[in-house]
Amino acid sequence: MPFQYRPFVCSVIVGLLPAVVALATEPPAKNRRPDPKRFEQAIVAFERRDRENPPPRGAVVVTGSSSVRMWHDTIRRDLAPLTIIPRGFGGSTMNDLLYYADRVIVRYRPRAVVIYEGDNDTHFGLAPAEIRDTFTRLVAKLHQHDPNMRIYFLAIKPSPRRQAIWPQARQTNRLIEELCRNDSRLFYIDVATPMLDEAGNPKTELFIDDRLHMNRKGYELWTKIVRPVLLKHEQVAK
Asked: Would you say residue 182 lies in a domain?
């Protein structure tokens, strides 16, 4: 049968192309600050578990958004022999962590805290300087309670799903890295650069099917980067 041109079919395919392209990356949401109180039940759940099994003082709190929450199952083993209190609550922003800092960080009287935030802030369209400024307020709040508390910031990771907003996330990383350089109590841990391939794109093999969250291989990479830094500064000699 000779080839027959079918303009309707072609127009449908062409019409679908923008949708396919849109699915390739996740554009930023509208500029907004979600209400921190949406996490109240998650924080109450932490407090309930604390009453049943009180964590020790002087440990290292690891908190932040879903990249921390999804690390909960293995993080104690990955960062051993340090005593880790995992307190990630998925979907959170830097402002959410500032709001709940007393309840997910300060109450444990940790000697140090590891923070992963900024990923969702960038998605919500917040400017890099605004995210940096919220981090600055969080640092000030924590140091009001313990001026010697060491604070480690994990760089915002690149991901295939949010590749369209990676330039903003990268700029946020740069601003916070600069902030950390000027305070001996602050540490910037670059988990982002090793997650990029030679072309500067996120390594897809580090992610689960949603192209946003990491698989075990991703967390093994983080462990390889984060653990030596924490051991250098936080391991207490027996």
From this structure: yes
| DSSP sequence for 136-147 | HHHHHHHHHH-T
How far apart, in whole angstroms, are the C-alpha atoms of residue 75 and residue 154? 14
For the segment 202-233, what is each residue's pLDDT rounded down to a tens digit? 999 999 999 999 999 999 999 999 999 999 99
Q: Give percent of the chain with pLDDT exceeding 70.
A: 86
Asked whether residue 15 is assigned to any structural domain, the reply reads no
Q: Is 49 among the domain residues?
A: yes
Buried b (16+ CB within 10 A) or exposed e, 134-168: bbeebbeebeeebeebbbbbbbbbbbbbbbebbeb
In a domain, 198, yes or no: yes
One-letter amino acid identity for 13?
I
Q: What is the pTM assigned to this prediction?
A: 0.88
Q: Domain range spanning residue 90?
A: 31-234
Q: Domains in the chain: how many in total? A: 1
Quick: pLDDT tens for 12-57.
333 433 333 334 566 666 657 789 999 999 999 999 999 999 999 9
Task: Please report, for the domain that includes residue 115, its CATH number.
Answer: 3.40.50.1110
Do the Cβ atoms of 210 and 70 come closer than 8 Å? no
Could you give the angle at the alpha carbon of 103 between the alpha carbons of 162 and 184, nearest 5°?
A: 70
Tokens standing for 171? 């700029």
